[in-house]
């Protein structure tokens, strides 16, 4: 019996030592020996029951819990040509955000970068003030992972229906007895006041019924107020202003004009718009005709597609056509680029325009979508413009300005007819492009838009 007790104690000591040292294999072997010598229950801890000689052993298992983890979200990396931006917060401290929900927007010189939340949680601290400058890699905000406090948010919702439910009707208590008699519904006739009494009544005794004079003065002061407000320019607007002024200071800008008869292209669009929409699921517009005509004219006049390198004093001629299409957004004018237009047809151009326009409206344009470009087309006609001179988008050498379509009387075959006409303008850098090339380029666009069959005949 004594030998059995010593063996039991030795095996128990080995098991306890193995557990403390974390040796699972030795612990299992010692536990098996202990179980053979005595009835043992494996549980969570080493315990001794005074009423029983059964020992209980518990294994410890640990796991790292990531709940309530606090993380710091940094500024994403910008494009190569962008170094910093201004922060505009969409959320505040204490707000609960879902995964991939936009927390802030960083406005750069060229575009806006959205910063989503990497996980669901609660915003603890904003490390940059609203409108502050940040660079790539700077800390933006701290986030506590987790779903947030749902109970606190659901409690008011649960109480709302109860509060909205009217209480059950109950018998109204009778009104308390009043010492005042019933209120008459009609007023007794007022006796007339004698004329001599009105004459002898002092003016000071007559009281005004309502203070109308101060209200009239306040209304007059509001109407005559001359107020003004100041709003800080965003980075995109500042960059646009800087580039336009650089274009004026650098280029020798000159503008030539022409007018386009839109009868044929309008008739073609009217005839095939339903079938075109059914087949390609996009609308057929006028922009694709001008983009294709510009690509055709740029191949005919390569100097308009070139640019002067002021650093090396060389002229760079491109054998490809990347056309920038100006798009107006609430933050400023952006010019996404349609690349390799020389190999596109009308449908490819329409799809590219729709895709870039949708990204611009959703503020999802990246720097890569606006980088480059050899020629720009600006369509002010969508806003009702009749005439205007566009400004070159550097480092390009020319820009085409489209305007509104208006019915005007024109001379056709010696007769006056009413035709849908559009004025077009070409602003070009006179340092590189002479008047002959500019006028020939614009007349080529006019002829192709007026008769698209010239594209098929390569004329």
Automatic annotation (TrEMBL):
Residue ranges, compositional bias (Pro residues): 164-194
Protein family membership: Belongs to the 2-oxoacid dehydrogenase family.
Keywords (A to Z) from UniProt: Acyltransferase, Lipoyl, Mitochondrion, Nucleus, Transferase, Transit peptide, Tricarboxylic acid cycle
Enzyme category, top tier: transferase
Domain Lipoyl-binding: 70-144
Subcellular localization(s) per the UniProt record: Mitochondrion matrix; Nucleus
Compositional bias per record (Low complexity), positions renumbered to this chain: 147-163, 208-224
GO cellular component entries: mitochondrial matrix; nucleus
Function: Dihydrolipoamide succinyltransferase (E2) component of the 2-oxoglutarate dehydrogenase complex. The 2-oxoglutarate dehydrogenase complex catalyzes the overall conversion of 2-oxoglutarate to succinyl-CoA and CO(2). The 2-oxoglutarate dehydrogenase complex is mainly active in the mitochondrion. A fraction of the 2-oxoglutarate dehydrogenase complex also localizes in the nucleus and is required for lysine succinylation of histones: associates with KAT2A on chromatin and provides succinyl-CoA to histone succinyltransferase KAT2A.
Protein name: Dihydrolipoyllysine-residue succinyltransferase component of 2-oxoglutarate dehydrogenase complex, mitochondrial
Cofactor(s) this protein cannot do without: (R)-lipoate
Pathway: Amino-acid degradation; L-lysine degradation via saccharopine pathway; glutaryl-CoA from L-lysine: step 6/6
Organism whose genome encodes this protein: Pagothenia borchgrevinki (Bald rockcod)
Taxonomic lineage from the root: Eukaryota, Metazoa, Chordata, Craniata, Vertebrata
GO molecular function terms attached to this record: dihydrolipoyllysine-residue succinyltransferase activity
Enzyme Commission no: 2.3.1.61
PROSITE patterns registered for this protein in UniProt: BIOTINYL_LIPOYL, LIPOYL
GO annotation (BP), single: tricarboxylic acid cycle
Residue ranges, annotated region (Disordered): 145-195, 208-229
